[in-house]
Amino acid sequence: MSLEDASLDILPGELLAVVGENGAGKSSLMNVLYGLYQPDAGTFLMDGKPVRLKSPRDAIARGIGMVHQHFMLVPTLTVAENVVLGREPTRRGLLDLNRACAEVAATAKRFGFQLDPRARVDTLTVGSQQKVEIVKALHRGAQVLILDEPTAVLTPQESDELAQVMRGLVAQGRTVVLISHKLKEVLGVADRVAVMRRGRTVAVVRAAETSVSALASLMVGEGSRGAALTGVPATSAPGVHDSQGEHAGTVTAGPIVLEAKDLRAKGDNGRPALQGVSLTVHAGEIVGIAGVDGNGQRELAEVLTGLRALEGGGGTLLGGPLAGLTPTLAKARGVGHVPEDRLARAVVKAMTVEENVALGRHRQPPFARGPWVDFKGRRERATQLLATYDVRPPDPTVALQALSGGNQQKVVVARELDAEPKLLVVVQPTRGLDIGAVAQVHARLREAKARGAGVVMVSLDLEEVLALSDRVYVLYEGRVTGHFPRKDLDERELGRRMLGAESDHG
Amino acid sequence: MLEVLHSLLFSTLDAAPALVFAALGAMLSERAGVVSVGVEGMMRTGAFCAAVAALAMPTPTAVLVGMAAGAGIAAVHGYLSIRWRSDQVVSGMALNLVAMAGGTFLLESLYGPNGTPAITQLPRWDLPGLSAVPLLGALSGHAAPTYLALTLPFVFHLLLTRTPLGLRLRAVGDKPHAVATLGLSVSRLRWGAVLGGGLMAGLGGAVLSTAVLDRFEQHTPAGLGFMALAAMVFGRWTPLGAFAAALFFAFGNALRIGLASSAPWLLDLVPQGFLLALPYLLTLLVLALQGQRGHAPAALGTPYEQESR
């Protein structure tokens, strides 16, 4: 696993942040503190006494609570049921839901949360669900609260609110451990910051005495890989810059590649997911789609790639009608797709890298010659792509699952861009990737744009949307609630629209 | 007319218990997230063991033996799917095949192909006040399982919706990781549900050999286990829904018997095989009409692994 000789001191009543790249071991360390994982070696002291946490039950009993990155809520149960689960109040052997609701309402009120205990969890916004998670821990008497990447899915407004909640808890004498990779945010709220790298804690610094860049270089380690952080990947093509401030030049809008009008589609649950979305994408621009998770972004991407049928609306996509689009048709017209869940939709993990590179174009040269697989051509092209896209290891014959997530994603991006798409639909292209891989993927998207492709980028990460997009549409409950050209991009305003605020202009 | 209805109702109530018990058992297991295609095999095991036991002991005790046998073979399913996280459909089907072949082998080697010797059936109870009332009289004259089948669904409903255990079972079928992070044991809950499901399926099987028939026959339960699964799906994984669906299927069965005996001319028009297939056709129709499995527990069929999210 991913921890090697990691040490961490947590002081009572402080707000400690733990930062590090993906895979640095932050979550693993916290899961050990919460009793979910068992350490192979090492000790854990609480108030100076050694303690063994065999399961979360032990951790909870000792006043440790954890809010996981992926919420641990049962979506079909109510808020109160989720909170009391495992320590249910009963009356004559039966569940006493009224008392449960009253207790949960009391806890929520004590800590200043607005929650309806009788609401079903799957009807709540992500921000509210997170509050349920926090209440769940506090309801169990948590003195130490661990929050794992709590702001990854929140709007800026919700993040601010969370920061206040955390400071409030610390003011009440509780201890908060915040895991994050958003350095700016961490510095704004934490007392101390612990930096992890490759399973070790490499530094612990006072937040007041450090800076974003100092933390960043601690995170990736000095030297060789430092370059990735400052934004210029070692392999990026000349002229392509990746820093946020320096956005690639003026936008010369090319011809329209996608014009969608009043798109309507149903989600997997049968409820309307798109309720009249109109958007335009030109060649040579990156159009960002921002929004809180579950507001129709996924369905929009699926409609544009032919994976989801339209219920209404239409338009043109690369010279053909959007209605009746199938994945084959989309591919034939030149749509590339980097889906959100690559293991489910983009690759076959048990097949080799070169086989995955050929997928989708396996009938065409250089991957095929007539009805036969062209092994030599495939090997050459795959080897060349692995080198260009800096996939490690650059071996086309290994099974894809042997690669790290970041390298798998690079393979997907390489394959899709190698087909020279005219419209590229990417969803959450850098989720779960480390900083170096993020920079590379971003650079590739800009290359695609420079080459003249229209790019539709769905991302839940507002920073990513802000960094890359020439224009941004904001989706809220299947409708466009905002449309901003780059010069008008404003994080606060985007956040407002993501929560459903409409406005008179735009 | 009244008489036809009466006899339809009577044979519905006679046929329902096996289906109701098996459907409740399957539901219990599946609500906790463990697929239960093995009910057919569990029923067969229960039916066989109950019949054999009834040769040596009082029939009510033999029914308990059948239940234990159902739980015993469910334990194999539990061991494979909870402990070793194997594919639950494959494990369940394997169970069915083992019960199918094992039952036939033991039957033929011990008693011959015609089934076990006849056993004493469970006693039928006459409800004195009721038997004279028109239609309601159909409630009288059944064996104990029928009355149990009329009450147990409500008990299960109470268990699932109103007790802490029920809340935990529902939670573990929808999001086992949430249950684990609260310090509860996912595997213990699932074990409980699988064994409880085995008891119920075993009971369903035992009822077939001790109340519906008076022996274990070659083909018992002849697909009733799958029909119970269909009832569970049709009933949207709820006790009362599964109950209603099981009654509906039992009614289809009664209709077949009723049609064949009260309107023999029908056999000239429709081949007997079609009538035999009627309950199964009803099952197919119902499942096709209902379509999607949108009501299934979210984590159904997914083995729980702590380090996966």
TrEMBL record, chain A:
Q: Has the keyword Lipid metabolism been applied to this entry?
A: no
Any idea where the ABC transporter domain is? 1-223, 258-502
Q: Identify the keywords attached in UniProt to this record, alphabetized.
A: ATP-binding, Nucleotide-binding, Repeat, Transport
**One Pfam family cited in the UniProt record for this chain:** ABC_tran
A single Gene Ontology MF term assigned here is: ATP hydrolysis activity
| Positions in coiled-coil regions | none
Q: Which SMART domains match?
A: AAA
The answer to whether UniProt assigns keyword ATP-binding to this entry is yes
Please name the SUPFAM superfamilies in this protein's record: P-loop containing nucleoside triphosphate hydrolases
What PANTHER family would the database entry show? CARBOHYDRATE TRANSPORT ATP-BINDING PROTEIN MG119-RELATED, GALACTOFURANOSE TRANSPORTER ATP-BINDING PROTEIN YTFR
Q: What is this protein called?
A: ABC transporter ATP-binding protein
UniProtKB/TrEMBL annotation, chain B:
Its Gene Ontology cellular component terms are: plasma membrane
Membrane topology annotation: Multi-pass membrane protein
Name the residues that span the membrane. Answer: 62-82, 94-112, 132-160, 191-213, 242-263, 269-289
Name of a matching Pfam family: BPD_transp_2
Q: Where in the cell is it found?
A: Cell membrane
* PANTHER family referenced in this protein's UniProt entry, alphabetically: GUANOSINE ABC TRANSPORTER PERMEASE PROTEIN NUPQ, SUGAR ABC TRANSPORTER INTEGRAL MEMBRANE PROTEIN-RELATED
Q: What protein name is recorded for this chain? A: ABC transporter permease
